[in-house]
Design goal:
mainly alpha, about 190 residues, about 85% helix, elongated
């Protein structure tokens, strides 16, 4: 296991260690895509999450957000629901510190909202997705709007309550992704 900053080392040395670990994990995560990432990240996940905490402590918020972007889905696939929620909230605090309301909302929807969805807490997921839609509209952020519409559409479809409304939300989301030229999210939305 790697040296972390939780011990009794001077702050300057801790920052140097963090810098070295950030470089290592940036390469490690970037070099591992798809199933390779999931297989290779599992033995390192505790070190990665500890590094995320250390970066937050030393106000290196951009890296906290990067780690969450890159590893949140791995936490989901590994069944580490509570860690995905916990570290999602830490990343939201990092986005708050940077004054990035849209990034905060994206993390809230994607990492935390979806985790509640998969855990079966659909009411909590709905609250989050509706909040994200509101923020997307307030910020005129089309990506957030499309994400929230997609998420709500899937939730409503899975509940089996209003297929027409679910279809409408999914179609509106798809239309936005197409207008933005985002082929990845078009494919994700189309299922």
């Amino acid at each position: 296991s790697f040296l972390t900053t939780s011990g009794d080392i001077p702050p300057e040395l801790a920052k140097e260690v963090i810098s070295t670990l950030k470089d290592f994990y940036r390469r490690f995560i970037s070099d591992n895509r798809g199933l390779d990432r999931l297989n290779n990240i599992e033995p390192e996940i505790e070190n990665i999450l500890k590094l995320m905490e250390d970066c937050f402590h030393y106000q290196q918020y951009d890296f906290v957000l990067w780690i969450m972007d890159e590893t949140g889905i791995s936490l989901e696939h590994l069944g580490r629901w509570e860690q995905r929620i916990r570290y999602g909230y830490l990343a939201m605090e990092a986005a708050d510190a940077l004054g990035d309301r849209c990034r905060r909302a994206w993390i809230h929807a994607y990492d935390i909202g979806w985790t509640y969805f998969y855990k079966g807490d659909w009411e909590q997921a709905r609250k989050i997705f509706e909040e994200i839609l509101k923020i997307g509209r307030e910020e005129n952020d089309r990506r957030l709007i499309a994400l929230a519409q997609r998420n709500l559409g899937i939730l409503i479809r899975e509940e089996g309550r209003d297929y027409r409304r679910a279809h409408q939300l999914l179609q509106e989301s798809l239309d936005i992704w197409k207008a933005l030229g985002d082929e990845r999210w078009q494919a994700i939305t189309e299922g």
